[in-house]
Amino acid sequence: MEEIGAGFRKELVSKLLHLHFKDDKTKVSGDALQLTAELLKIFVVEAAIRSIRQAQAEDLAQVDVEQLEKVLPQLLLDF
């Protein structure tokens, strides 16, 4: 199965992770970076889908930050 669409680069994921590590010597394997990038991609896609559904429920033609803010609490609990 071929992957379609954009994702997160390993370099970006690595920088994001290292920003929150307490020890600068902490290392992350390539597999862990790939899995984290995939998780981030799934999270972002799910947030977009839920925001679209929220906008549709409100009979809006365009998704705004307000719809994302409404779905974000439940999204965070689900992840």
From TrEMBL:
Keywords on record: Cell cycle, Cell division, Centromere, Chromosome, DNA damage, DNA repair, DNA-binding, Kinetochore, Mitosis, Nucleus
Gene Ontology CC terms: FANCM-MHF complex; Fanconi anaemia nuclear complex; kinetochore
InterPro entries for the chain: CENP-X
Localization terms from the record: Chromosome, Centromere, Kinetochore; Nucleus
One GO term of the biological process aspect: cell division
Any one GO MF annotation of this record: DNA binding
Major subcellular site: nucleus
Family: Belongs to the CENP-X/MHF2 family.
Binding partners and assembly: Heterodimer with CENPX, sometimes called MHF; this interaction stabilizes both partners. MHF heterodimers can assemble to form tetrameric structures. MHF also coassemble with CENPT-CENPW heterodimers at centromeres to form the tetrameric CENP-T-W-S-X complex. Forms a discrete complex with FANCM and CENPX, called FANCM-MHF; this interaction, probably mediated by direct binding between CENPS and FANCM, leads to synergistic activation of double-stranded DNA binding and strongly stimulates FANCM-mediated DNA remodeling.
Protein name: Centromere protein X
Species, as recorded: Balaenoptera musculus (Blue whale)
